[in-house]
Amino acid sequence: MSDIGSRIWASMNEGHVPVILVVDDDADLRQLVRHRLREESYRVDEAADGASAIEYIKQAKPALILLDAEMPNLDGFDTCSIIKSAKENENISIVMVTALEDDQSIKRGFSSGAEEYITKPVNFEILTNRIRNILLRQQMERKIRWQRDKLAFERNFIEEIISRMRSAKRFNAFRVRFMFSPLEKASGDLLLSALRPDGGQHVMLGDFTGHGLTAAIAGPMVSDVFYSMTEKNIHMEEIIHEINRKLNKRMPVGMFMAACFLEIAPSMQQAKIWNFAMPDALIFRGDKLLHRVSSQFLSCGVVAQVEMMPFIYDHLQGSRIYFCSDGIVEAKNLSGQFFGADLLIDTIEKMIEQGDSLDAISNMLDTWHDTYGQDDDITLIEVSSDQD
Q1: What angle do CA 213, 214, 217 make, to 5 degrees?
Q2: What's the CA gap between 283 and 351, in Å, rounded?
Q3: Contact in structure between 57 and 50 (CB atoms under 8 Å)
Q4: Contact call for residues 4 and 50 (beta carbons, < 8 A)
Q5: What is the pLDDT of residues 90-136, one digit of tens each?
Q6: What's the rounded Cα separation, in Å, for the pair 45 and 53?
Q7: Domains, in order of start, for the chain
């Protein structure tokens, strides 16, 4: 924990004296227990029966309750069950202190929600040790909850920074439709699109190793290289080399980016595609599949230098190009079957034929997932030669 965090935690616990509620219909025993616990520097309150204890807890939350089992009207077992059934009382510990020592009573005490069961006459050495252990555990649980909440806050803070750094303000949606369903707030899938000053268009879909915050951390660096070099009218091949070089140099071992890159010529007659360990890129004309561009290279960042030749498509007019992350083709149903490329192709064909939006693919995936649920980031992009 940082020095600041330690000081905050210390201030949270400074002067914190646990309150113990003693519930027993025997006033003399309550007074004796109260006296012994105050000698241990605990704050002690009393209740003469179960109903009074329940009313007390509505106003205050003791750290621990010492609860007699045999009391008139509402006995200790029922009192324990009522208290522990309320979610707001889940952090209150209950110790049954009773003369009942048969197995059935002990079993009933624990099943009612008691953490400890101590028989009368009370051995105060045993009682104070049990209390000390319970309160120490509570303190550790509070510390764990605080650290967990602190980590969650810091994670959300970092995710917000990354999201802002990956801002969509530079994304140019010309000729582009996409669907994007991240598994977490910070996604390992990265979708970029920009126009060069000469009218050419660059599109990239990246998929970093894993998902969530660790996978998203390199996104801003890749985005900056992609957009800044595109704005300088630099062609895609040189951009890919620079992205690969930076990932190889700066990312830890085991962190890579699978990616598909697309460059459309200013004439709109030619497209170049580079596939780095991604699912097949798909080229359609009308509602018919013309080409499947399979992976040609290792993921970006695996090696320092890459020799690459793009797939060149010279009849772009009237065509649509699709890239997707593996979260689509590897989506599982309840039987453990993958969605797969063939079903994706069939779904795209029907979508184009019927003039549907990309929601048709999203709906098909939702049906496929059913109750199994999404287990990876899901991204698909369509780039059309038609200037809608």
Answers
A1: 80
A2: 14
A3: no
A4: no
A5: 999 999 999 998 999 999 999 999 999 999 999 999 999 999 999 99
A6: 10
A7: 3-149 (3.40.50.2300), 166-384 (3.60.40.10)
